[in-house]
């Protein structure tokens, strides 16, 4: 699975307490096949390390140890190294396993606990800028789920949606001798209202930026007939013939619209940070932001796309570690992912910005509630 599949329901299930041990394996990977052998060796070594940890743990019963190792073996056999991105996460307990491909670096780690380690998934999902695309036409409406370079059609919540085959009133045609315009008859308006209501339900459950795609008359009619959800769309692709994709073509056509939204979002975030500085509701640098996040004072956390740092916890503060090979219980090698997950759990918004956007703020900053 990729990070686009991390819905609130899936995350809730991953965080559920399980019978010990629930094993989480994480490791960095390389995009593309040339480095797949290096990744294969690292994966085998990680699996062996997990096996040693299971054998050495006196709290793991023999039956559970055998079952978890069997699930881990299935998971590793299921990994497609040709499909890897920047990070790989494997979850396994005695009953199941899951394999996740992440577009974000993750450190190499084996964790045995009574729940799965989710912070790398949460950070990757946030960084991948998930979004929805609603494609509308007189003949149907489709909903697409996207994140990063991934886009696929959403099946469910009433989508894909088609209008009633009876699209005009036969008595009206006999009475006045015409058929209604494709984008002006009441049946089409009613259909687009249904599509709008359906996407509103999805947005309430999974809030994401929404893009609209379709011919200009269809989009105009949707905005007239729709709710605040569709009228607040962050971008519009005015082009027909894309309601049914295919996904690569739709993504290519949508890219300029998404890039424009990204520029507006970056400019707006930087302005918001400047305003917060003026009001003295501002934090900058990892240690300050981390403290505000733990205290749930952060309203918005902004950080650069590829920012990561290994730190040591000393007297309640984070101190950067120059030697990334350093070890110890006070070493946190994925503190940024931990920051992102903690911020989101505390109700803060997390915004990833292009490289060097926050160079003057040590790559990470926050707008504070007070």
Topology of this structure?
Layout: H1 8-14, E1 22-28, H2 36-56, H3 62-78, E2 87-92, E3 97-102, E4 109-113, H4 119-127, E5 131-137, E6 140-147, E7 150-153, H5 170-176, H6 186-205, E8 210-214, H7 216-225, H8 228-231, E9 235-238, H9 247-279, E10 282-284, H10 286-294, E11 298-304, E12 311-314, E13 317-320, E14 331-332, H11 335-345, E15 349-353, E16 364-368
Parallel strand pairs: 5-8, 8-9, 11-15
Antiparallel strand pairs: 1-2, 1-4, 2-3, 5-6, 6-7, 10-16, 11-16, 12-13, 12-14
Features:
single chain, 370 residues, alpha+beta, 5-stranded mixed sheet, 4-stranded antiparallel sheet, 11 helices, 40% helix, globular
Briefly summarize what is shown:
The protein is α+β, with helices and mostly antiparallel strands and 370 residues long. Helices cover 40% and strands 22% of the residues.
Helix residue percentage = 40-55%
How much is the average pLDDT?
89
Uncertain stretches: 167-180
The count of strands amounts to 16
Rg computed from alpha carbons, rounded to a whole number of angstroms: 24 Å
SSE ordering: HEHHEEEHEEEHHEHHEHEHEEEEHEE
Structural class: alpha+beta
The description of the largest β-sheet is: 5 strands, mixed
Outline, from the CA principal axes? globular
**What percent strand?**
15-25%
The quaternary state of the protein chains shown equals: single chain
Gap between N and C termini, in Å? 39 Å
Strand order, largest beta sheet:
7-6-5-8-9
Q: Helical stretch count?
A: 11
